[in-house]
Amino acid sequence: MKFAVFVFLACLLCVAVTGQRESKGRCRCQGKGVRFVPQQKIQTLTMYTPDQSCSNIEIIVTMKGNGGKKCIDPESDIAKKFMEKAQEKMRAKKADPTVIPELTTI
């Protein structure tokens, strides 16, 4: 009886560990995101660099008015402009390069 309980618990442990290994992280964005958002509708842009939970660069726009959020394709023109401005802002302030500032305008 004790052996059966041990085998059962070992199987449960294997299933739990396998489930954790298959998890590919928790990215905020599903897919690439949109390529364009009208600039006058953007309240803030936030960039998340790759980390342990998500291997993608993610750029999220918070919209004016309703506060809704949209993911932006990192290869889009608006994303590239955002990254350039963020780098300029970091250079101007001589900020820590691992911290990406939040910008309110592009």
Automatic annotation (TrEMBL):
GO MF annotation: an example: chemokine activity
Subcellular localization: Secreted
GO cellular component: extracellular space
Residue span(s) of domain Chemokine interleukin-8-like: 24-86
Entry superkingdom: Eukaryota
GO BP: defense response; immune response
InterPro entries: Chemokine_b/g/d, Chemokine_CXC, Chemokine_IL8-like_dom, CXC_Chemokine_domain, Interleukin_8-like_sf
Signal peptide: 1-19
Cross-referenced Pfam families: IL8
Keyword vocabulary terms for this entry: Chemotaxis, Cytokine, Disulfide bond, Secreted, Signal
Main location per the UniProt record: secreted
Homology family: Belongs to the intercrine alpha (chemokine CxC) family.
Descriptive protein name: Chemokine interleukin-8-like domain-containing protein
Source organism of this protein record: Alosa alosa (allis shad)
